[in-house]
Amino acid sequence: MGIYILSFVVAFVVALMATPAAKKLAYKIGAIDIPKDKRRVHKKPVPLIGGLAIYLGTILSILLFLPKSQTNLGIIVGSTIIVVLGIFDDKYELKARVKLLGQLVASLVVVLSGVRIDWLTNPFGDGMINIGVFAIPLSVFWIVGITNAMNLIDGLDGLAAGIASISSGSLFVVSLLNGRYATALITVAVTGAALGFLPYNFNPAKIFMGDTGAMFLGFILSAVSIQGAVKSAAAIAIAVPILALGVPVFDTAFAIIRRIANKKPIMEADKGHLHHRLLALGLSQRQAVFVMYGVSLFLGLSAILISSTNGAKGYIILIIAILAILWGADKMGLYGHKAKNMNV
């Protein structure tokens, strides 16, 4: 356990110390978030690229404590591509297709290094299901999807960093349960780095992680979740990373459903995300963030419980979690009729 503590501490301290430097760099290169529309919660310009500190803390910890391997190198290179892409986006506001192209390249680097979903546990019997030629496209879809989902929830001070900390902490426990010790080390490093950045990012934020940080966190967590959760022996292993990363996954899913129901383009931004709905109910930024932390913790614990059990208990936990998610989404108007009536 000592190596995990060291990994956490190194990532935490590096991110904590590097964030002020990232803030200075943001002002120097002009990577500043200036609120231009009503969707923005903040009213004053705030420096971006704080995610660079999270990246440095995580990668340095990986380099110090993980053995050199093709898979680990692929994760480092892919993450670096994503961070460079994020810095350019925070500075120049890249077009969506350019960002997507960069995400695809980074994802392919990781997938071709060996991080991919080659098989799934058969939930209806013994053995595994080999997905064959669908392994690469499915793995790329998962990584790109989570990368963008994490970016979408980065809408309140401290939200994405806190959610990423809880998600990576949950994946850390799942990885240990499944004997995936390399993955456990990466996830504990992500947890430390995200928490090291959080003091500067919590409301009122002195710096934002920007696309640099949100895409990096989504990217690396989606990649390691394949190794540490999807490839586990749990009967419904595929549900584990979905729940561990549940807040960005389900918030994005409901956004797609909502926009289809309201006959709006899927890629069109709106104010119907969970954090927008919580603010509309009169909660402060901090209160809304803590509520979403609670949701993430519930989903993370559900993922851990499913990963640690087999048979009927796992399915019962999954059903309860899904019912709770659907009930909460309906009450908050996250999809369909209520979202339309709320003019989002």
UniProtKB/TrEMBL annotation:
GO molecular function, one term: UDP-N-acetylglucosamine-undecaprenyl-phosphate N-acetylglucosaminephosphotransferase activity
Keyword Cell wall biogenesis/degradation part of the UniProt annotation: no
The protein's enzyme class: transferase
Protein's organism: Thermoanaerobacterium butyriciformans
Pfam families: Glycos_transf_4
Record carries keyword Transport: no
Cellular localization per UniProt: Cell membrane
Protein name from the UniProt record: UDP-GlcNAc:undecaprenyl-phosphate GlcNAc-1-phosphate transferase
EC id: 2.7.8.33
CDD domains: GT_WecA_like
Keywords assigned: Cell membrane, Membrane, Transferase, Transmembrane, Transmembrane helix
Transmembrane segments annotated in the record for this chain: 6-26, 46-66, 72-88, 100-121, 127-146, 158-177, 183-202, 214-230, 236-257, 288-306, 312-329
Membrane topology: Multi-pass membrane protein
